[in-house]
Amino acid sequence: MFRKSLVPSVLFLGITMLSAMTSAVHAQEVEVPFDGSVKAACEFLTPVGGTLAPNNAILPTQLSSTNTGGTAGSVGIKCNTSATVAAKDYTQTAGPKFKVAKATYTVTNGAETDSKVKVGMGETSIGVNLTLDSDAPIPAGDYSYNVMVTAAP
Question: What is the model's pTM?
Answer without folding.
Answer: 0.78
